[in-house]
Amino acid sequence: MREDPTMARNLVRFDPLAGLDALRRELFDDALLPVTRGRIPTTDVYMEGDKSLIVEAHLPNFDEKDVTVTVDRGALVIQAERREKEEDKEKKYVIRESSSSFYRSIVLPEQADESKIAADFVKGVLKVTVPLQESASPRNISIGTSSSSS
């Protein structure tokens, strides 16, 4: 029996996950989230050498007065909330009201010096510097021999 060469070219490999990938694209690639895509604030947490922990929260559309930074039970808490309201004074009804909020809690390392935490807000970026205290260096404990004589 002879194989038909055109038949081999017409075969398509079956991909069982193709339907899931299409569903993911439909749900998350602009289909349901066109308004929020690209506008969700990001937070970067990184070490600056061994001396400090840096937390940068990118908060576009927030003003410094909208942002609070607190330390609560060993965690750095960043909150931002903005409300807008426009009223038509002649007709006495609200024509537009909106609010935006952001919340992030970051557990601080044990060596964080909470009394020296500093924060700056420049061009929509909140930068919090958490200085780290030097941790006690490990010390060797000598192991003695115990001899019990009876």
Automatic annotation (TrEMBL):
The protein's matches in SUPFAM superfamilies, at most eight in alphabetical order, are given as:
HSP20-like chaperones
Q: Which residues form the SHSP domain?
A: 34-146
Domain of life of the organism in this record? Bacteria
Task: List the InterPro entries.
Answer: A-crystallin/Hsp20_dom, HSP20-like_chaperone, Small_HSP
Into which family does the record put it?
Belongs to the small heat shock protein (HSP20) family.
**Name of the protein:** Hsp20/alpha crystallin family protein
